[in-house]
Request: fold
Amino acid sequence: MMEERHLEASGRATSAASTSKGRITGRLPIELVAKVETARRVLRTKGIWSVAVKTLRQLRLWITRWGGQLWITRCGRWLWWTMRMRANKGVCSVEIVTNDVGFFAQMTWCLFIFQYCERHRLIPDIRLISDIYLDYGRGKNCLDYFFDLSCSMTSEELARRVRYTNKSGYMGPPISPRMSLEDGSRVLHKYLSLKPHINTLVNDFWRTLNVDGPVLGVHFRGTDKSTEAPRVSWEHCLKVLKNQQ
Reply:
């Protein structure tokens, strides 16, 4: 009897971990199968060295963020930040330098900075420096490609006041408060306005849709996010959206 149970248990384990043409199948959770297949695909296309470099970069970023959450780090950063803003005579000058996060993640950091400036009556001076979006024909500041920054003083006066610019690749405390969608929208429109040519592109695209009524925009991540979560097909997303109507 014990031998039969042992054979039965062994059979279940073998079935759960069985393979077919190099793919893991059986009773393993679909999330685990998807992650294993993604890892295999990344190793085949990019190679072990590229994966190792990316893993080390993510580990460094995680350590930086973890260290930034320590209370002694937060207190020191707050004191240093306050002293520098006073030296700038009320100008909050920040240069975000990173190639590790996308444009809209950087835009979220900009919203945090704008909200901080609003609460402390500071004048924001923000630049986004990233090799990912760099266009040498339009300068180094990627934010300036798409937006005009509202400022109560001229660029000459701003340059005269700024003595210190905080160069950072990660916006942690004290610049990361909670923010609602309503506050985010209000702060965005208070400090930033789209360039005229961007408005023209958006309006032209909207006219090509030829739609009337509410529209739901979906950002489908079909490439880079597959290393962080199981890949989901566009057909499945479309089915879910249609079921919500």
